[in-house]
């Protein structure tokens, strides 16, 4: 079934009058997502993608009962847009924007501890509950409804792994792209906890990458708290130390932590098999479900 | 983006952090003239973006004109860990009794800035952090309040800095945090912060890394970017085309969309026995011209023997990618290196109809495409 979103979720799109915002609002609605409003300062009273636009997120909440926002706002203003969604009493905010300055995210991170809103992203493809709703930019057609939960730091890698699963007839409960930045809202541990507590999820895929220690923390969490079988994948085995590999967070420091090797061995120690290829990840999931 | 030492020192000095007198020079006469003006002894320091310059022979002390000339001759023009040295900083040598470390960075695990102070300065601080973490005092900073005065004092006293200089060191730490915050730093460090016999502190080195995502609001620093860039011609080209690009040692060129998927493609090239020549992420929603630029870039690398395209469209559309590949390849009488293409996701079927299969090899899966590119590279290497 669903984790975090379903076809009842009432979505406001921040930045709906921009090129990306409008296109993806339409794509989301076509998929079945209940987009109820847009929010763009100075554009209140207009209509975009067939829904009313308000000047503030607060108004969209008051007028349309929006409970979730999806943020397509340029990087310079995206930190502020996240603050606005956190201060509007939403349940969930999904920030798609790539390239938000890290210091802005440190301030957002502080505010997150003071509100009840859950943040997903930034720099992420969003999340999808196949057949019900998608929030973000994921291509809906490759997903299928089923019993595997997926959490990933990378968008296109998510598509690749989902494709391997769907082609074998293995569907997904929900796929969550948590984003590749150094500071993000929902992390692996949060997502694993959601899947562990979801009765419909029978197996979990976790796609990580080099940089930081989130995968190592997730491994420790799995060891202690997760009974649902988990299969992993770690991108960046061949990355040289010190170089930023696309994602702002994907950089191996010189001191031996955050490497693909340390992540793979932490996961293996927690009983999580890690595929050498996306196809092998699907093999492991198939074994779990057999 | 990492500033050169001389750039970072200027930024620090402008903010009021004590630094030695120094001048930049690019020839021997310039070094001698600078040394005369500053007064001996001086340090002559290579201005390249590598760590461990001292051990590699990139920093020399000079007590007189002969030694300054000698140091300039040996350092200018040298190859330091792959970087050509064309400029040196000539700097007044500091007569010190102690070396401290002070630094600010983002603790990504905590999602907060952290200030660090240690009396074990002048050495590789990463090694200290690993072998003797207790030797570094740390203060996490609430970004909504900034570093409070007591936090700077506590870090300094916790680190065991002597009382006679504690006030000055806290002041340097506070200024450093302010700079880090104002300039969108990712790291700001002074190692060593030297303590002189008359209880003064001087920043003998300066490290400042800037968050590239924030350069839009740091116009002065953005201007330094061109000068701060490393020496790699291809990486410069990538800046111009605005690609995420990293050059590697192998011979299989790799182009894809999305950082995680491109990294995975690199890993698979390695897994199937090949060697990746580069990481090139065209990003989301790339149009035909951008795809053509990506091919142009990878073809410009002499080490590349074959190219693999791995596109899994979400925002990116397969038909645009196919058009870009055709445009880039149709200009050649003979395609310089074999190109393998794998298209999936948004509009991949339209893409396959458009793609000129006389010019490329098409594979359906990621695994097949990578194996084919590795095989082609092997054949070329065998010739």
Give the strand line-up of the largest sheet of chain A.
3-4-2-1-5-6-7
In helices, the fraction of residues of chain B equals 25-40%
Compute the number of strand runs of chain B: 18
Total helices of chain A: the number is 9
Name the pair of protein chains with the most residues at their interface, and give those residue counts.
Answer: A-B, 62 and 53 residues
Main beta-sheet annotation of chain A:
7 strands, mixed
SS strand fraction of chain A:
15-25%
Shape of chain A, please? globular
The helix-strand sequence of chain A is EHEEEHEHEHEEEEHEHEHEHH
Radius of gyration of chain A: 18 Å
Number of helices of chain B: 13
Tell me, briefly, the overall form of chain B: elongated
How far apart the termini of chain B lie comes to: 40 Å
Structural write-up:
- The complex is a heterodimer of chains A (290) and B (383).
- Chain A has helices at residues 19-31, 57-64, 75-86, 102-112, 155-166, 188-196, 214-225, 260-269, 278-289, and strands spanning 11-14, 35-39, 47-48, 51-54, 68-71, 92-95, 118-120, 126-129, 133-136, 145-152, 172-177, 203-209, 230-235.
- Chain A is of the alpha/beta class and 290 residues long.
- Chain A has a 7-stranded mixed sheet, with helices on both faces. In chain A, strands 9-8-11-10-12-13 form a 6-stranded mixed sheet, sandwiched between helices.
- The radius of gyration of chain A is 18 Å and the shape is globular.
- The two termini of chain A are 20 Å apart.
- Chain B is elongated.
- Chain B has 383 residues and is α+β, with helices and mostly antiparallel strands.
- Chain B has helices at residues 5-14, 28-38, 65-75, 125-131, 149-159, 163-182, 219-228, 233-241, 259-271, 288-299, 318-330, 348-354, 366-382; strands spanning 22-25, 42-46, 59-62, 79-80, 83-84, 88-92, 96-107, 112-118, 136-140, 185-196, 201-203, 207-210, 244-247, 252-256, 278-281, 306-313, 339-345, 361-362.
- Chain B has 13 helices and 18 strands.
- In chain B, strands 7, 8, 9, 10, 11 and 12 form a 6-stranded antiparallel sheet that branches. In chain B, strands 1-6-2-3 form a 4-stranded antiparallel sheet, with helices on one face.
- In chain B, helix 11 packs parallel to helix 12 (348-354).
